Amino acid sequence: MLQGIELLADAVAITMGPKGRTVIIEQSWGSPKVTKDAKFVQDVANSTNKEAVDGTTTVTALAHSIAKEGLEKISKGANPVEIRRGVMLAVDAIIAELKNQSKPLTTPEETARIATVSANGDKEIGNIISDAVKKVGRKGIITVKNGKTLNDELEIIAGMKVDRGYISPYLTNISKDQKCEFRPGDAYILLSEKKISSVQSIVPALEIANAHSLSTLVLNRLTVSLQVVAVKAPGFGDNRNNQLKDMAIATDGAVFGEEGLTLNLEDVQPHDLGKVGEVVVTKDDAMLLKGKGDKAQIEKCVQNIIAQLDVTTSEYEKENLNEVLAKLSDGVAVLKVGETSDAEVNEKKDGVADALHATRAAVEEGIVLGGGCALLWCNSALDSLTPANEDQNIGIEIIKRTLKILAMTIAKKAGVEVSLIVEKIMQSSSEVGYDVMVGDFVNMLQKGITDPTKLVRTALLDASGVASLLITAEVVVTEIPKEEKDPGMGAMDGMGGGMGGGMF
């Protein structure tokens, strides 16, 4: 088990820091993928990446350090359960200290700086991301896609996001990415408050169905290429009704089954359907872009929400109102990545997406010193801990040494003396760190060498969690991989899962 962890950690460590190297990953389809981010790390690393930012590299390095030392101590007779308790005791103290260290982003310039650092020093990308955050707001939606020119571009599209995906994967029309897209062009949307048990009742729209009518909808999608996708209405009760009303306002449609209205599905008319310019639906969510809603009506709704925000005292209510406000007023920012070849676009696109995630996380929870310095400065927070026994103290000591791993790895990749660098940082003021690009000690905040607090926090939490699970595990059961015979002919893109791509 440890051998597998070390194999993964060694590959990931290569990518760490501004002087890290790239890794080339073989894929089952297309050309090999070049990354400086170790996205192939799955499970806990992907969990951190989804929750925070480009944290796959960080969480893997931390988890490896904790697991390696923990397993070594256990082999010498230490109690794994007590070690785990010591580890989690230390992690709780560090998270509290990180919150004390964290500094909020207050200006667009600070946002651009963190985005630039996260984009490996690309100022153009940093400025575009900062501009996108400024235009759509802190909670606005920002996506990254391939551009059609050599230049990077920012496009602001009026749209909203629904936290529900398609109800059947057979409704997708892009099998590779498992999503359904209708663009460009107008798409009609039927909004229903109540369940629909028969496709016959919505023949004029043929847009949504529940479990009973889903088979008919899928059959039409597969056999006659009916351009349709079904999405379950988001939320429950009043929340569902309110979200459908928001969508109706944004798309100039009506909500069928809404209390007080006499609209029947059988009598649906074109003007009852919402209209959007583009639709993108994945298994998790749906994007409604370029809504055709009446601008005056939308503005009136926005002003009403702003007025409610001024008087409400409920944090829960404020959060809900802000979400609606973001959907109706901010729209969607699309970052279009341009390069000379598909391989370059895909590599750059990964970097832009990571920089975007890092920026959003920094806006959300603030920033701490980068280069592993934030964790170094958390060491003192562990001095006051009082473990219940020696094995818990072992867990705390493991974390103390783990806090140095990031700074040591980055320094090692830069070819400098690791122990001297770490020692000097610990003896300097709280804002001083080592800039490997210039080979000198600098004020990290002034130089903009920072990490999103959320990245460091979630990476440490996830790493300690999975490492603790590994060191307390007595048996691991896994499936023996089956050898697949070469079919002798490369599979066509999107032809998988027993369903021919040509049927979509």
From TrEMBL:
Biological processes per GO annotation: protein refolding
Keyword Nucleotide-binding attached: yes
InterPro entries documented for this protein: Chaperonin_Cpn60_CS (IPR018370), Cpn60/GroEL (IPR001844), Cpn60/GroEL/TCP-1 (IPR002423), GroEL-like_apical_dom_sf (IPR027409), GROEL-like_equatorial_sf (IPR027413), TCP-1-like_intermed_sf (IPR027410)
Function: Chaperonin implicated in mitochondrial protein import and macromolecular assembly. Together with Hsp10, facilitates the correct folding of imported proteins. May also prevent misfolding and promote the refolding and proper assembly of unfolded polypeptides generated under stress conditions in the mitochondrial matrix. The functional units of these chaperonins consist of heptameric rings of the large subunit Hsp60, which function as a back-to-back double ring.
Keywords of the record: ATP-binding, Chaperone, Hydrolase, Mitochondrion, Nucleotide-binding, Transit peptide
NCBIfam families per the UniProt record, alphabetical: PRK00013.1, PRK12849.1, PRK12850.1, PRK12851.1
EC code: 5.6.1.7
Keyword flag Transit peptide: yes
Localization annotation: Mitochondrion matrix
CDD domains given in the database record: GroEL
Catalytic activity: ATP + H2O = ADP + phosphate + H(+)
Protein family according to the UniProt entry: Belongs to the chaperonin (HSP60) family.
Primary subcellular site in the record, as a coarse category: mitochondrion
Molecular function (Gene Ontology), one example: ATP-dependent protein folding chaperone
Highest taxon of the lineage: Eukaryota
UniProt subunit comment: Homoheptamer arranged in a ring structure. The functional units of these chaperonins consist of heptameric rings of the large subunit Hsp60, which function as a back-to-back double ring. Interacts with 2 heptameric Hsp10 rings to form the symmetrical football complex. Interacts with HRAS. Interacts with ATAD3A. Interacts with ETFBKMT and EEF1AKMT3. Interacts with MFHAS1.
Name of the featured protein: 60 kDa heat shock protein, mitochondrial
PROSITE patterns referenced in this protein's UniProt entry, alphabetically: CHAPERONINS_CPN60
PANTHER family in alphabetical order: 60 KDA HEAT SHOCK PROTEIN, MITOCHONDRIAL
GO cellular component terms, semicolon-separated: mitochondrial matrix
